[in-house]
Design brief:
The complex is a heterodimer. Chain A is of the alpha/beta class. Chain A has one domain: Response regulator (Rossmann fold), CATH 3.40.50. Chain A has five helices and five strands. Chain A has a five-stranded parallel β-sheet with strand order 2-1-3-4-5, sandwiched between helices. Chain A starts with 8 loop residues before the first strand and ends with a helix. Chain B is of the alpha+beta class. Chain B has a single domain, classed as CheC-like (Chemotaxis protein chec). In chain B, strands 1, 2, 3, 4, 5, 6, 7 and 8 form an eight-stranded antiparallel β-sheet that branches. In chain B, a hairpin with a 4-residue loop joins strand 3 and strand 4. In chain B, helix 1 packs across helix 5 and helix 2 crosses helix 3. The relative contact order of chain B is 0.23.
């Protein structure tokens, strides 16, 4: 019997509109039925998650306002069911360790089919 | 062609943010500590309108690393730090208790290496993401005053556009702000914009 995969809700957090467009288009190519919302900073992401809990979230680190890792920590402390993947160009060991300590993973930018596949794989199995 | 749309600037800032991330990774491995980087901002300015404020050039001497990049577009890239900041970075890179005299001896070589890392990280990110190849010349380091730098940027009629990328780098909790400046000819700017358009068209 064929079982449809349940529709997922994804929140994309990135200060760059181009980056959000890239992530959105790569993910919709694989999962056209996913419902995607976007936030341009960590503060907006926290408010959006409080308002409408997503299944998954991609999170940039370097953004105006609080960092993506701080936003991740705040989101996970209130909503531990959200699966978050940190998507960043800032791939130094300090950030990789911080991501691990928060129970997430860091996938390095640029946003490509390959890096999106890594992120999706992590989200599906997290 | 004297204006880039908000989306062009966003795409370039994102490309350079990836470049800055690569540069920070290399630098953090050299200095053995975290290198904090700011969200980069990109501006396009007519060379004749450039002034000390646009480059955050106050007074004093500046360390400038120059490198020429060629490919589908050609650019003269310049990385600028105040000389005091340049010496702090050299001190972090050398990682020892060197005297100022000893540091000055290494300044030229270390700044060329730093420029090479940062400029190539930014330009290679741009080339990878926008899908072209750029060749780079060897880096050249010189100490110059703000006026000397500005007059050099203004006088080159063949390169009337200046693209300024502002990034803050903090090594070992010291705040160090650097400016990356690209000098572009009209033809090079047109080619760069057409590559950014091709990249954006795939998303729309």
């Amino acid at each position: 019997m064929h079982m449809d995969k349940p529709t997922k809700k994804l929140l994309i957090v990135d200060d760059s509109k181009v980056s959000r467009m890239l992530i959105r288009s790569h993910i919709l190519a694989k999962h056209p039925d996913w419902v995607i919302t976007e936030a341009a900073c960590g503060e907006d992401a926290i408010a959006l998650v409080d308002n409408d809990l997503p299944d998954y979230c991609t999170m940039d680190i370097n953004m105006p306002g609080i960092s993506g890792t701080d936003a991740t920590e705040q989101i996970l402390s209130k909503h531990p069911s959200v699966k978050i993947v940190i998507f960043s160009a800032n791939i130094q060991e300090t950030h990789q360790e911080r991501a691990r300590s928060l129970g997430t993973t860091l996938v390095s930018k640029p946003v490509t089919e390959k890096s999106i596949a890594l992120a999706l794989d992590y989200l599906a199995n997290a | 062609m004297n204006n880039l749309s908000e989306l062009h600037l966003d795409a370039l800032a994102e490309v350079f943010s990836i470049g800055a991330g690569r540069a920070a990774l290399s630098l953090s491995e050299i200095v053995g500590d975290e290198v904090r980087i700011s969200v980069p901002s990109v501006q396009l300015i007519n060379a004749e309108d450039i002034n000390p404020a646009t480059l955050s050039l106050n007074c004093g001497q500046f360390g400038a690393v120059n490198q020429h990049f060629s490919g589908p577009f050609n650019a003269e890239a310049m990385l600028l730090f105040t000389e005091e900041q340049a010496l702090k970075i050299v001190s972090d890179m050398m990682g020892s208790q060197m005297s100022l005299e000893e540091l000055a001896e290494f300044e030229h070589e270390a700044m060329c290496e730093l420029g090479n890392i940062i400029l190539n990280a930014c330009l290679s990110a741009m080339a990878d993401i926008l899908g072209f190849t750029l060749e780079s010349s060897l880096p050249h380091y010189a100490v110059a005053s703000a006026n000397e730098i500005l007059s050099r940027l203004r006088k080159d009629n063949s390169q009337p556009y200046v693209m300024v990328l502002h990034i803050d780098l903090a090594i070992e909790k010291r705040h160090t702000a650097g400016n990356l400046v690209f000098l572009l000819s009209s033809a090079s700017l047109t080619n760069l914009v057409s590559h950014v358009d091709q990249f954006l068209n795939k998303l729309l």
